[in-house]
Amino acid sequence: MNYQKTILKKGISATMAVMLIASNFLYINAQNDNKASNVKRMETVYANLDPTGSATEITISNWLKDSVQDKVITENTDLEDIKNMSSVSYFKTENGQLKWSDPHEDIIYQGTINKKLPVTTNIKYYIDDKEISPKDIAGKSGKVTIKIKLTNNTFIRKNVNGKFENVATPFTAIVVAGFDSEKFTNIHADESKIFSDGNNQMLMFMGFPGLKKSLNIDNSSIKQLRDINLPDEFTITADVKDFELNTIAIALTPELPDFLKDIHPLDKNAEFESDIDTLLNAQDTIKAKDKNNSIKNLLLDQNKTNDAKKLVDDLFKYYDLDTNIAKILPNYVTENNVKLYDKIKADLDDTDLKYAIDNQVLRYIPDRLTDAQIQKVKPIIKDYDELQTLDMDRFDKATDIIDKYDDMKNIIDTGSDLYDNVKNHDTELENLQKATGYTDKIFDLLDETQELSLGGISEDDINYMLKALAEKKSKEATSQFSSLFPDNPNDPLTPIQQRQLAGLLDQAIRSGQIGATTGAQLQVLVNSGHIPEPYRSQIMGQFSAVAQNKINSAISGATTDFRNVLNKYQTLKWDLEKDFSYSYKSEIRSALEYANSIMPQIITLKDEIKKNQDTMDDAVDLLKNKEDMDYYTYWLHKAKDMKKDMDDNSENIDILKDMLNQYDDPKIKYIYSQIPKLRADFDQARPILENFADELKLPIYNKSFHNSPKTVSTLVNMMDDLDSTKYIGDTLNLALSDEIVDVARQVIKLIDKTDENGDLKDIKNKLNDADDIMARKNQIITLSDAYNSFTSSDITNSTVNFIMKTDKIEVAKQKKTFVPKAQQKKSFTGWLKGIFHK
């Protein structure tokens, strides 16, 4: 901001100086032609603007200074209504030329022109943020905003560093606006100077219309340039009462601002700039060619670095290998040997070699006839000799029995069932043995029961005995209930007596032997802890009645049970006499004594079965299996037939004996023993050979196989090259050492950081932008130097300035046209004061 203010101050000072010099003479600029080289031309353009900034009248004043030295002065002009304001020199216009003859003094003349100004003005007015026309704003009050915009109309296409860009003639503008202090308060405008004499406030702005665009500052990468403010529009805000506005004056000069003149080319090092281009081009090339960052990741990615190290390690492992075998490969991988392979393959294609190799019988004969198996054959030969002595007549006896197996089938099945029964009833057998031991006691009980039944006890006898028993039990209950009460009726119940009485009452109530109402009343007495007469006797009576009922019920049940026992005994006695005889006791006792005598043998049999259960089960299963028994029958007969066949093959057995004797030869025995190993070796190699053969059928591999002589030769040559360039491997190994990799990573990260931040490109852009600014500046200077006349004068020694003012905005007052008078020669300061004088 301070830098911008300094520029503003310098610019205002420079422009004011130019304008003050011009104001001493009022009318401006003339130039001479090639015949009037001493003439100095100063041109001033006066423009009347309406309140919106549109030009309504343009008047030109020209001063041809030092013109007396020339006889004739000629210049091109666009002026109309030309008037000589200062001399009697004669002039005439012809074909767009103005010619002065025999001037005796400086020439000052003026005229009018209908031409668009190089810088146009646009002014807008707002009351309370709403746009309003100048004629409608007069007399309004509120918050006023005035926006002034200057537009440079001189842009043309110029060559800037090889490209055609829009560049305009530079203009420095001074904008001056005056405000009545009684009407305007709180005046504010950025980038302005405010002057006040108490009655009026004057705002002064400095602008550079089109200069920012010409310099392309907004798109520059140089921040210091972007921060420079080159305004071409201004905003004034104030509080107004009864709006009226004096003239807004604008002074323009095509003079270049001092700060732009101070911009000098950078002291660049061409080699440094070239290095930056080289780095940027290298980065772009690497990014374009290595889009996946493979080269960079080779060092930055530890896994890839490790892979590279592995590759170098493999190279050094190669150097440690014994590669002599590879050197003789060309002797065997030859064109002739490849042709031989093709011939063998064609011959084998006509045979089913695989079928013969996979024949299971032929394949595994050596496995089946191992040395051990062959040794076992020798005893068979001996067995054969012994079988020759076998007496087959003795086999006939066993054959006769087995042939009758079907006749004994029922006996075998029944025996099997009995075996299963005994095997599965261990506990029952043991209990049966115990039960037979109680034979005497059982019969003693039967005898006593019989005596009781025959003793003559009648029904009345039973009732009498039970009645006596009931009376006894009733007395015992009454005596027991008496202990539930204290001896003295007036004494309270003990806690134990209370609990016992409460429990008995609760049982009697729940069983229905005492009514609920009576029971509840008795419980109240028990809970009180004191039971006087007659309640004591009442409770005793209740309990006694309950007890008597239980006793009677029990006696009745016992009577019934006793009668049932006697009846069942009588029924059992009749059944036994029916099944046995009247002497059934003797018969049953005899049977039980027999059972008791054989029980030890049965138990012993059971134990033996248990110990040999698996064998017994197998034996029983075998005897019950008719299919197996038929099989034995068949083979007994078959054995007899085989014996006969063996007798008939005695000669063949002799041949087998001779073969076994040859096997005892050590050489033959060793070769035979190696057959399984050779077959295993072949089996192991067979998948490899078959896969190799199958893959060689594929066109890609078949072609490679037939090219293998050349391939092997090339590989051998490559090996020779590797051996002769081992120093390169040493260099690669050094390049991938941890120290070198760490340094390389640091360099890459530094370059990446620079690339990420855009430092190199930023430097390059700034250098380019600096060149661009200088090129634009040079074009702007050229345009500034060339712009010396608004009226198309061709006098070279010429200058031009513009002074514009707007009409006042007044309430119901007639507008006065501003026309400069030649005879007045007031200073610029005086002219400015006059503008704002009411």
TrEMBL record:
<keyword id="KW-0732">Signal</keyword>
<protein>
    <recommendedName>
        <fullName>YhgE/Pip domain-containing protein</fullName>
    </recommendedName>
</protein>
<feature type="signal peptide">
    <location>
        <begin position="1"/>
        <end position="30"/>
    </location>
</feature>
